[in-house]
C-alpha cells in the first residue's frame, strides 16, 4: 500500500474552535426569538437546540463563515444552515422599526434632530444584464445603495430598503421613502451632507439642513465656512452608526442575493443595537 493510499484512508474532517465576539445578551435574544417562533408555528423539534442554532447563524453573520463549513462542523447539511440563516434573518428584520415609528419615538424622548446619510454596500459581481444596474459609476464597483437615520449620538434607528448601486443620488432615495413628510409629521429636523441639497426647498421653515457648496462663481464666505464646520461636527456621529453596522464582515462584500439584502441589513440593525446599547 502506498503512502498516498494510507493518507487517503486516514483523512477526516478537522474542526477548530473560534471566538464569537458578541455578548451573551445577543445570543439569548436570538435563541428566545427562535423559541417563540417555533411555538407559534407549532414545530416540535429541530436537529439542534435553539441556542446552538443562534450561535451558528451569528457565526455566519459575524465572521462571514461559509455555510458548507458551518454545516460540516455541526453535523448538518448546508441547506439546513441556509434555512436557519434565512429564518432568523427574517425574524430579526421583522423587529426593525418602521420609519414613522422610529421618528415618533425620538420625538417622545425629547430629541430635536436626526442624522441622515447614504452609503454603498459592495456586492459580488454577478453575470447577466440584470446586474448592470448594481454598478455604481461613482464608486466604480457593484453594490447596493441605502439610507440610514441615526439619533444625535449616532445610534441607528432606521434603514431604508436596499436599492441598485446606480441609484447613488441620495435625494432620489429620500423622496422615494417620503422622509421629508415623515420628519414634518414627527416635528423633527435632520442634518445632512451636500448630497441632500434640494431635498427641502422650504426657505422659511426648512426641515433638512445641509451645508453650503462652493462653485466656480461663488466662493464660500467665512461665515459659510464656519456654518459648514459646525454642521460637520454635528453630523460626525452618523459615521459612527455606519461603522458599527459595517463591523459585520458579511457586509464587506455581499454574496447573498440582492433581493434579500434589505432583510439582512434590517436584521443587522437589530443586532447592532443590541450590541451597542448593552
Which labels suit this protein?
278 residues; alpha/beta; disordered N terminus; globular
One letter per element, helices H and strands E, the order comes to: HHHHHHEEEEEHHEEHH
Residues in helix, %: 40-55%
For the termini, the CA-CA separation is: 60 Å
The secondary-structure class comes to: alpha/beta
**Shape summary:** globular
Q: What's the count of strands?
A: 7
Helix segment tally: 10
Largest sheet: 7 strands, mixed
Q: Overall mean pLDDT score?
A: 85
Poorly predicted parts: 1-8
Using the CA coordinates, give the radius of gyration: 23 Å
Strand content: 5-15%
Structure description:
This protein has 278 residues and is an alpha/beta fold. It contains 10 helices and 7 strands. The chain has helices at 3-10, 24-40, 50-63, 67-74, 78-93, 99-108, 170-176, 179-186, 222-245, 261-276; strands spanning 113-122, 135-136, 141-150, 156-159, 163-164, 189-191, 208-209. Strands 1, 2, 3, 4, 5, 6 and 7 form a 7-stranded mixed beta sheet that branches. It is globular and about 70 Å long. Residues 1-8 have low confidence and may be disordered.
Amino acid at each position: 500500500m502506498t503512502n498516498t493510499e494510507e493518507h487517503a484512508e486516514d483523512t477526516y474532517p478537522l474542526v477548530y474552535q473560534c471566538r464569537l465576539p458578541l455578548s451573551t445578551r445577543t445570543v439569548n435574544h436570538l435563541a428566545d426569538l427562535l423559541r417563540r417562533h417555533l411555538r407559534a408555528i407549532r414545530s416540535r423539534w429541530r436537529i439542534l437546540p435553539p441556542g446552538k442554532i443562534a450561535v451558528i447563524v451569528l457565526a455566519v453573520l459575524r465572521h462571514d463563515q461559509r455555510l458548507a463549513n458551518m454545516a460540516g462542523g455541526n453535523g448538518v447539511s448546508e441547506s439546513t444552515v441556509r434555512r436557519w440563516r434565512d429564518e432568523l434573518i427574517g425574524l430579526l428584520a421583522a423587529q426593525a422599526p418602521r420609519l414613522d415609528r422610529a421618528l415618533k419615538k425620538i420625538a417622545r424622548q425629547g430629541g430635536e434632530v436626526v442624522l441622515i446619510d447614504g452609503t454603498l454596500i459592495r456586492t459580488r459581481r454577478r453575470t447577466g444584464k440584470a446586474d448592470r444596474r448594481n454598478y455604481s459609476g461613482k464608486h466604480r464597483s457593484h453594490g447596493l445603495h441605502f439610507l440610514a437615520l441615526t439619533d444625535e449620538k449616532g445610534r441607528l434607528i432606521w434603514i431604508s430598503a436596499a436599492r441598485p448601486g446606480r441609484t447613488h443620488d441620495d435625494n432620489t432615495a429620500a423622496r422615494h421613502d417620503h422622509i421629508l413628510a415623515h420628519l414634518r409629521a414627527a416635528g423633527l429636523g435632520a442634518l445632512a451632507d451636500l448630497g441632500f441639497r434640494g431635498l427641502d426647498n422650504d426657505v422659511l421653515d426648512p426641515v433638512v439642513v445641509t451645508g453650503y457648496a462652493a462653485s466656480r462663481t461663488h466662493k464660500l464666505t467665512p461665515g459659510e465656512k464656519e456654518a459648514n464646520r459646525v454642521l460637520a461636527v454635528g453630523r460626525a456621529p452618523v459615521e459612527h452608526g455606519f461603522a458599527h453596522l459595517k463591523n459585520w464582515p458579511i457586509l464587506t462584500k455581499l454574496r447573498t442575493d440582492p433581493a434579500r439584502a434589505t432583510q439582512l441589513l434590517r436584521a443587522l440593525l437589530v443586532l447592532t443595537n443590541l450590541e451597542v446599547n448593552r
